[in-house]
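FAQ

Q: What does a record look like?
A: Structure on top, sequence underneath. For example:
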């Protein structure tokens, strides 16, 4: 039986297996994003659905359509240099919010991977950002 990974267990197994467990998730793929806490300065790691876009990686700051953004997004706004792990590849990236010109195409790409993103956007008046992770 395959255990559905989530939260801390997802992170632990992903790290221990270089993504052999945790990269493929619910019919899509995840990476690990490590941000620096804007208040605490502590490192925080979050598994997120991603897609490649050229040399960059895309993630969505949806928080399931909540009115407030996820904490990892607030952290990267304060400290845009982040750690990323995709399978066994670990690297530093610069995180930025997609520009208004970029966002429509990037949103379509992410919603094609995880259709619930479109539903999440209908739940909130907050414009849900697409984040571009550019390898440094």
């Amino acid at each position: 039986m395959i255990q559905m990974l989530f939260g801390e267990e997802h992170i632990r197994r992903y790290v221990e297996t270089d993504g052999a467990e945790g990269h493929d998730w619910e019919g899509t793929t995840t990476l690990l994003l490590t941000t620096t806490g804007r208040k605490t300065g502590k490192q925080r790691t979050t598994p997120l659905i991603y897609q490649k876009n050229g040399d960059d990686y895309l993630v969505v700051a949806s928080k399931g359509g909540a009115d407030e953004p996820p904490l990892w997004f607030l952290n990267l706004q304060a400290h845009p240099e982040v750690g990323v792990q995709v399978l066994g590849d670990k690297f530093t990236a610069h995180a930025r919010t997609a520009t208004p010109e970029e966002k429509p195409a990037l949103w379509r790409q992410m919603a094609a991977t995880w259709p619930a993103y479109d539903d999440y956007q209908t739940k909130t008046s907050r414009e849900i950002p697409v984040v571009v992770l550019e390898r440094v």
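Q: Is there anything notable about this one?
A: Strands lie at 24-25, 28-36, 43-49, 51-53, 56-60, 81-86, 89-97, 130-135.
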